[in-house]
């Protein structure tokens, strides 16, 4: 090879590896990856994003309104309310008269309820005698009593530090194990609606853990219950939640005559009785059902009663954990991205997106509308944020596909210009994914050619003649390579480098390369003879062929890339081409190429150790004109020679005709006592 000749690359700069599925080869830009990650995060944590979560909350609330069944009055939970009728008896609305509360507790204690839960904070002193009356009554209670408390750190809008300190002191002064503290914290969502409540929380200035008012009351009864630490399982209704509970005014209980109270006792006995505010300006909250009540809010004590009833009835509303929503989001985003990437028709894409959206919403509705656990359990799966994530992911996939499609069209238009055959071009047009950008390791068959003495000839000829001769020679060589479905890798001066199985996968790549080498040699011999007849000393063309693994891909910098193959196979093929000079041959084919080609007219040449290698490689040469009998005799002689059998010389002499350079070479070696077929080359 004339290494000092200028290199002219003809292969495209953007052809890649094997024909694999397009989706596995897409070069996804960083913005696409970023968009997919954001879509996943939106699907998983969208309910934590302001404004976005409002849509998810709305979907949750509508499902609760539509599918939560109506129920009868609860039989084990009731509410005694501090209502306007009660408040009218006192000079001040707040704090509530504690002597009155003491009397109320005494009456309730007489009725023997299962437990009493007081949703009132005793967070500041009132009249000493009234405070003492309440303290004394709590001390005398014979039924479990839960009193409300809070934590300034988590419930700053409910209780202050000094109030918590007073409440701690008040509670410590009550010497009755049946009286316990509980938190009344409701967990508002970002829109202010109370949809959940923690079962445990921290109260007091010391931050001690206690159950919720409802959980503490239920636990005190000893009744079997299902914990409620999360979504509140509101009852189905279209008005305030109190319609689900028997409700007595506190003043009706305290002021009832003994005869009248006898009638009230059965309503109170054996039940959990909640005491709390039922006023128009105190402790009011929005719930999921506020959508249907036109702004009418629900009192906190009614929500506490709902929680207790929920635990007693074993009802629950489950929402997926962050891990579950993350997994769901990943699956939805991947599905949307695949829909976008695979889109071949806009209507099909739209139909797929609508179909998957229906599935998302169908699962979301069914999860709540169809109860489990004997009708007690319902699930609220997110539907809005996954839908947003689906739309974003589909759009990203669609945009990427459009981008890839445009790139492929430009890619193929440039690729088909000069370097592939018509049959290969047809395959590429039918399946553009066979041209993929990037590099990978694969088996290829490589072919190298070079003209002996071309450097000297180029110095002797005038430029016009040199260009004319070289162009006609390369044109003929190129057409033969393309005819055999080869990829023209590059021209290096007068040299040609071609590849098979680099651009398109084909099982017969070794056979194609061997057949191409034989036809190239025939063309080159005829071309050289025609030029010599004109008085131009055009040299013999040497050809090397080998099959093996190489890294195929684009190599270079950001501004210039060259598609080629690199690796030991390419280096060995180049060495085989050069070895022709030392052996007097025109074509040398490596053992791997010879074996894979399946061509019968190949004879063994030598076990060649090329420069830079320690291991011998068996090389073969084509003899398509030999009759089978002569080829068989040669192979027998070569076997004897390889084994060091002295009979090899006579077998070779019987084949010698004065024209075979290989037989002549081995007879010379035998004459000097060198047996065997191992030949070590000291030069390239």
Q: How would you sum up this structure, described in words?
A:
There is one protein chain. With 684 residues, this protein is of the alpha/beta class. Helix content is 46%, strand content 19%. The protein is built from 23 helices and 25 strands. Strands 1, 17, 18, 19, 20, 21, 22, 23, 24 and 25 form a ten-stranded mixed β-sheet that branches. The longest helix is centred in the middle third of the chain and has 32 residues. It is rod-shaped, with a radius of gyration of 46 Å.
Instruction: Look at the structure and give the mean pLDDT.
Output: 84
CA-based gyration radius: 46 Å
Q: Would you tell me the structural class of the helices and strands?
A: alpha/beta
Largest sheet: 10 strands, mixed
Number of strands: 25
How many H/I helices?
23
Shape: rod-shaped
Terminal-residue CA separation: 10 Å
Q: Percent helix among the residues?
A: 40-55%
Return residue spans where pLDDT drops below 50 for at least 5 consecutive residues: 1-26
Strand content: 15-25%
């Amino acid at each position: 090879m004339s290494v000092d000749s200028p290199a002219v690359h003809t292969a495209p700069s953007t052809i890649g590896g094997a024909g694999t599925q397009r989706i596995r080869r897409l070069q996804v830009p960083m913005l696409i990856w970023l968009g997919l990650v954001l879509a996943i995060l939106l699907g998983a944590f969208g309910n934590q994003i302001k404004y976005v979560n409002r849509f998810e909350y709305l979907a949750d609330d509508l499902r609760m309104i539509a599918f939560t069944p109506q129920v009868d009055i609860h039989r084990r939970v009731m509410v005694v309310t501090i209502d306007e009728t009660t408040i009218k008896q006192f000079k001040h609305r707040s704090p509530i008269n504690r002597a009155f509360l003491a009397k109320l507790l005494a009456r309730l204690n007489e009725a023997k309820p299962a437990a009493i839960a007081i949703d009132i904070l005793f967070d500041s002193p009132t009249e000493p005698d009234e405070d003492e009356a309440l303290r004394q009554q709590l001390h005398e209670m014979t039924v479990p009593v839960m009193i409300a408390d809070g934590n300034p750190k988590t419930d700053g809008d409910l209780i202050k530090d000094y109030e918590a300190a007073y409440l701690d002191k008040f509670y410590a002064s009550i010497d009755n194990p049946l009286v316990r503290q509980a938190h009344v914290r409701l967990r508002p969502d970002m829109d202010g609606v109370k949809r959940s409540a923690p079962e445990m929380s921290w109260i007091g200035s010391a931050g001690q853990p206690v159950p919720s008012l409802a959980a503490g009351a239920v636990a005190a009864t000893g009744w079997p219950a299902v914990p409620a630490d999360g979504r509140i399982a509101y009852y189905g209704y279209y008005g305030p939640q109190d319609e689900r509970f028997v409700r007595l005014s506190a003043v009706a209980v305290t002021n009832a005559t003994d005869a009248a109270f006898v009638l009230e006792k059965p309503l109170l006995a054996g039940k959990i009785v909640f005491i709390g505010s039922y006023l128009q300006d105190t402790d009011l909250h929005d719930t999921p059902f506020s959508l249907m009540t036109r702004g009418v809010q629900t009192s906190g004590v009614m929500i506490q009663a709902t929680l207790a009833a929920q635990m007693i009835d074993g009802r629950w509303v489950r929402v997926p954990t962050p891990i579950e929503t993350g997994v769901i989001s990943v699956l939805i985003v991947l599905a949307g991205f695949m829909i976008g990437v695979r889109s071949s028709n806009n209507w099909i894409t739209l139909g797929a997106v609508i179909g998957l959206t229906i599935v998302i919403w169908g699962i979301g509705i069914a999860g709540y509308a169809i109860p489990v656990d004997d009708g007690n359990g319902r699930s609220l799966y997110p539907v809005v944020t996954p839908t947003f994530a689906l739309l974003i992911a589909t759009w990203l996939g669609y945009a990427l596909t459009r981008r890839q499609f445009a790139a492929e069209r430009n890619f193929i238009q440039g690729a088909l210009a000069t370097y592939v055959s018509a049959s290969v071009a047809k395959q590429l047009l039918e399946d553009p994914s066979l041209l993929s950008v990037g590099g990978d390791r694969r088996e290829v068959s490589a072919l190298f050619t070079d003209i002996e003495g071309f450097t000297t000839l180029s110095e002797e000829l005038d430029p016009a003649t040199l260009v004319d001769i070289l162009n006609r020679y390369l044109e003929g060589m190129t057409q033969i390579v393309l005819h055999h479905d080869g990829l023209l890798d590059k021209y290096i001066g007068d040299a040609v480098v071609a590849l098979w199985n680099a651009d398109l996968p084909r099982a017969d790549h070794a056979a194609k390369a061997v057949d191409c080498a034989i036809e190239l040699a025939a063309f080159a011999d005829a071309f050289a003879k025609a030029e010599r007849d004109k008085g131009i000393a055009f040299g013999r063309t040497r050809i090397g062929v080998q099959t093996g693994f190489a890294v195929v891909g684009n190599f270079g910098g950001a501004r210039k890339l060259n598609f080629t193959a690199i690796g030991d196979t390419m280096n060995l093929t180049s060495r085989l081409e050069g070895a022709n000079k030392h052996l007097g041959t025109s074509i040398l084919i490596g053992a791997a190429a010879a074996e894979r080609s399946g061509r019968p007219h190949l004879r063994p040449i030598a076990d060649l150790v090329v420069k830079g290698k320690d291991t011998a490689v068996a090389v073969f040469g084509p003899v398509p004109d030999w009759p089978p009998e002569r080829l068989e005799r040669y192979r027998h002689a070569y076997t004897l020679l390889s084994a060091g059998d002295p009979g090899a010389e006579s077998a070779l002499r019987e084949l010698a005709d004065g024209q075979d350079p290989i037989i002549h070479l081995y007879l010379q070696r035998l004459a000097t006592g060198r047996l065997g077929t191992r030949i070590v080359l000291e030069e390239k």
